[in-house]
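FAD/FMN-containing dehydrogenase: structure tokens wanted.
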Amino acid sequence: MAAPAAATRNDVTEALERIKTIVGPKGWTDDADAMAPHLADWRGLYGGSARMVVKPATTEEVAGVVAVCAEAGIPIVPQGGNTSLCGGSTPDEGGEEIILSLARMNKVRAVDPDNYTMTVEAGCILESLQQTASDADRYFPLSLAAEGSAMIGGNLSTNAGGTNVLKYGNARELVLGLEVVLPDGRIWNGLRGLRKDNTGYDLKQLFLGAEGTLGIITAAVLKIFPKPTDIRSAFCAVPDVAAAVTLLGRARAESGDAVETFELMPRLVIDLVLKHMPDCEDPLAERYEFYVLLELVSTASGESGLSERLEAILEGAFEAGLVLDAAIAQNEAQRQEFWKLRENASESQKIEGASIKHDVSVPVSRIAEFYDAAWKKVAEIDPTVRLVGFGHVGDGNLHYNLQVPEGGDGKAFLARWDEFNRAVHDTVVEMGGSISAEHGIGRLKRGELAHYKDAVSLDLMRSIKATLDPAGIFNPGKVL
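Answer:
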């Protein structure tokens, strides 16, 4: 997509002053220290500059800012919690863009327990929305490691996944309606809490997963669910990835499809977390090559029988050689200890040093095949690389990350990024998978998308972008 046409200095200066008037003194900053957290991504791969950070407080203010930018040709980088892992919310180095942060738009507009919905603004923190649903005796299942700072607008713009996709689906499957500011400053109000609405195209799907390139999500109607009454968690050692996949199938069938979480972790993940997170503990006395965090959930009132079902599943799995050892959480504190090992995986990798991350998906039935085939190609490049392949086996999504060799040169390792990418991504595509399962494209995978996406799909995407944002002012340089 072509960059937006440059505006004259006078046009820009006048436009910036108009924007400041629209959002008021609390709604903007050009102070270097205040802007700094907005200018770099979480991984530290991308950093840029911007004219200023704008923080509108209402949808009307967002629309006003966008209209001014559209008139003056000023590009906009929408931003939520800035937890993007692909540089999707980071400005470029040119300094021509403004960052439009949704942080001040953090109101819960309505909770409708009978309709099982809540209507929320884009700047609401994910963790706070989980609590809002709980306070209404309901459950919002979107859950991921960054939920304490990630904002729902960003989650929806990237179609976030997380640990509960197996049972509830990706972010787009949790949305009934959206409110969106378009690149010309118009507001599309699609905030409907309907399960059935066949009045034409499902327009909200255009903006879910579009990473702010087609519109700025300002509010959403989210699905909420019956609140779990019982959760049973087990930390299991398994002999290999194939056994983990077989265990998943058995657990789903034997539990009445009550599996909510099924997370795979190799021993290296456990070692890195224990090394860098001193408050974490190994649940099992012996070391094993692979582990699974398995959780069953029930929403039934009274006795759920979930504990007995979990024990029966594990007993059968022991007999079948699918489980080598297991610890069952006896209380919520023990359950959270299990989760610390999974949720600190990415942070531990970051502390350990340079890593090349691959957020990929393949059919669940081919996960074990992919795990080994991709590693064979990686090892041919450099057998000293450490494989940190973990993730959501239940929905086919692996974070197939490569860690710099122990004691190795991080810069030299990262310089081979494209070489390692090709090995992993070629294998993904050969197996009918995707090079981006839940993190999006952003700046990081733009070239990879162009390499692997078919020509017709790319043409359709470019046509949609050109129709909605012909001037190219929304998040330029991302996705396409």
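The longest helix spans residues 9-23. The chain has four domains: 9-103+463-468, 108-226, 230-344, 353-439.

Cheers.
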